[in-house]
Amino acid sequence: MNPATTALVLVEFQNDFTSDGGTLHDAVAEVMGSTGMLDKAVRVADAARAAGATVIHSPISFQPGYYEITSHPYGILAGVVDSTSFVKGTWGAQIVDCLAPKEGDIVLEGKRGLDAFASTNIDFILRSKAIKTVVLSGFLSNCCVESTMRSAYERGYEVITLTDVVAATSQAEHDNAIKFDYPMFSKPTTADEFIGALAGEAVADSSRGY
């Protein structure tokens, strides 16, 4: 793996998901705890920076009233609105302190939906930096992470998804995404394998189940 052409994308590591008191934390806490994904995300981000890879934060936020989206949301966005999550300027929308952006990191602006490619300039950023490999982590395993994964795959990037640095609202949904969907659109990889690859070690066979 060439760090110079690799970008780690940290999807929605925001207090509403990651932290006690966050509006959606209770929904993801069990899966977060099953893998220790938050601590691993910090390790992965530090390793990526140290190796010279690009680190990109992909938070989602809405102005109070959620005027950027339909007045009749359904599905996952209805859950966001009903729980009053990710409101711009609030503690819940802030990136969790342990993963706060550091000098040289990039923070995407404008994410209002599931796929980071749909409403941000991430594709422009990646191509302008000659990025070839996109490494994904964050929330939710079967939603924003997977949506972004599919788009990156369709755009011709090499896509790596960190299977133990993602979380969903249930273990079943998390496990199902990793087992059935991730191998179709990415190379499922663990945090330790990715850190090893940054150091020049071979990445495990992506066809293996996790």
How would you explain this protein's 3D organization?
The chain has 9 helices and 6 strands. Helix 8 links the parallel strand 5 (158-167) and strand 6 (187-189). The protein has a 6-stranded parallel sheet with strand order 3-2-1-4-5-6, with helices on both faces. 39% of the residues lie in helices and 16% in strands. By secondary structure, it is α/β, with parallel strands linked by helices. The model is unreliable at 205-210 (pLDDT under 50). It has helices spanning 15-18, 25-35, 37-51, 76-82, 116-119, 122-128, 144-154, 171-185, 191-198; strands at residues 6-11, 54-58, 106-107, 133-139, 158-167, 187-189.
Helical segment tally? 9
Quaternary state of the chains:
single chain
Low-confidence stretches: 205-210
| Amino- and carboxy-terminal Cα gap | 21 Å
Q: What is the spatial order of strands in the main beta sheet?
A: 3-2-1-4-5-6
Structural class designation: alpha/beta
Tell me the β content. Answer: 15-25%
Shape: globular
Q: Rg from C-alpha positions?
A: 16 Å
* Average pLDDT figure: 95
How is the main sheet built? 6 strands, parallel
**Helix fraction bin:** 25-40%
Query: What pattern of helices and strands is seen along the backbone?
Result: EHHHEHEHHEHEHEH
